[in-house]
Design a protein that fits this description.
Pfam families: Peptidase_M56, TonB_C. With 411 residues, the protein is an alpha+beta fold. Helix content is 54%, strand content 12%. The chain has 17 helices and 12 strands. β8 and β9 form a beta hairpin.
């Protein structure tokens, strides 16, 4: 697997695990709305390669340690991929199958839906407020929201008979809240993410929990608008028929969600101040996490191809050894989109030596290196890497130095 894809997958895994572990605690502390905001984290992790790159001077690689015998300890970087391409084809086949299933389900629901009869539209006129009646459709899977370029509300043919007037008002309020919150779009994004991560067990574990958190956030918003309807809302849920979850629908009630939704209705909900504080705190936390992750990814995106560069480490110049010169040379290396080296600049303000021999040795070796180019918008682009090269005549005692001395003495 490509190193950049593997890093992205590890970040997404960490984000999914964090959300799954934190969602209940966040819900109890700040409410269902802020808890649903947590699901942005895995989506941001997937979008990292397309986010604006950090300033190139922040990308510094671990130091290369050059010893007098010419041996050097390499940096920890990404090794060029030599694996067969079959995992990519397998992933692509699974993603296409998932997306095809999603499209087929959507088209089937659209074909089965019908315009609302005029009598039903007239009977619901007061509950619809300013909703365009053309966004209402008749379908046995309703009440539900169907995502589309312009999301639709599906209602069953017996909607007027199935629900009393007060219950109809609450159900429609719930569905319209889904529309106002943009939940149909978020559901679509979640299904696309699942299609891309079809092989990932945490993605399948997260899917029903994402749906539940979305419903709880919608319930909380409805009850915030109508704070005296708690009992009626719970009664309506209890007397509703649960539907089997369908990827392209947001149903009024999916049976596995009932217990959690009733518990949330009965529990005391956080006030506005705590909810807003929770949203701000989570936003700052997620932004900081993305910043740190992006910095880590940036540091590795310009990583060296160790399989190739290990044969071309700098040699400690004999003149420098004789003169007792040592220290760290910092090179700013331009990494072209194909991984080759462009310009190389010595940075005296960050280096600890001004020895011309050491600078020349580091620069000569760097001209032959290869790098993993920086990724921006999913494509390799020209960037920069700061490479420290440390020349040390008398290395400090340690495992790396010991191993290198033993290798040298065994020759």
């Amino acid at each position: 697997m490509d190193a950049s894809l593997l890093r992205c997958l590890l970040l997404v895994t960490a984000a999914l695990a964090s959300v799954l572990l934190a969602r209940r605690s966040v819900r109890r502390a700040f409410g269902a709305g802020p808890a649903f905001v947590l699901w942005l984290l895995p989506m941001l992790a997937m979008a990292l390669p397309w986010l604006p790159a950090l300033p190139s001077q922040w990308g510094a690689l671990p130091a290369i340690h050059v010893l007098p015998d010419g041996l050097a300890a390499g940096t920890a970087g990404a090794v060029a991929s030599t694996h067969a391409p079959w995992p990519r084809w397998l992933w692509l086949a699974g993603a296409i199958a998932m997306l095809s299933r999603l499209v087929a389900q959507y088209l089937r629901l659209r074909r089965q839906s019908r315009p609302l009869p005029a009598a039903l539209v007239t009977g619901l006129r007061q509950e619809l407020h300013d909703l365009d009646p053309r966004r209402l459709r008749l379908h046995p899977s309703g009440p539900a929201v169907l995502w589309a370029p312009r999301s639709l509300v599906l209602l069953p043919a017996d909607f007027l008979e199935r629900f009393a007037a007060a219950e109809r008002r609450l159900v429609l309020h719930h569905e319209l809240t889904h529309l106002r919150r943009g939940d149909a779009l978020w559901s679509l994004v979640a299904e696309l993410v699942l299609a891309l991560l079809w092989f990932h067990p945490l993605a399948w574990l997260a899917r029903p929990r994402f749906r539940l958190d979305q419903e709880l956030a919608c319930d909380e918003r409805v009850l915030r608008d109508a704070p005296h309807d708690d009992a009626d809302y719970a009664h309506t849920l209890l007397h509703s028929v649960g539907l089997s979850p369908v990827p392209v629908l947001i149903p009024w009630l999916a049976e596995p969600q009932l217990k959690e939704r009733l518990t949330m209705i009965q529990r005391h909900r956080p006030g506005a101040l705590r909810r807003r504080a929770g949203v701000v705190a989570l936003t700052v936390l997620m932004a900081g996490s993305v910043f740190v992750a992006q910095a880590a990814v940036h540091d590795q995106q310009a990583g060296q191809d160790l399989a190739y560069n290990s044969r071309m480490y700098p040699r400690y110049p004999a003149a420098a050894i004789k003169a007792g010169e040592q220290g760290t040379v910092i090179l700013k290396v331009q990494v072209l989109a194909d991984g080759s080296v462009g310009t190389i600049t010595y940075e005296p303000e960050h280096s600890t030596t001004t020895s011309a021999d050491l600078i020349a040795a580091a620069t000569d070796a760097a001209r032959q290196w290869r790098f993993n180019p920086e990724i921006k918008g999913g494509k390799p682009v020209t960037g920069y890497a700061r490479v420290p090269v440390r020349f040390d005549i008398h290395p400090m005692p340690g495992k790396a130095g010991k191993d290198e001395v033993e290798k040298s003495s065994s020759k």
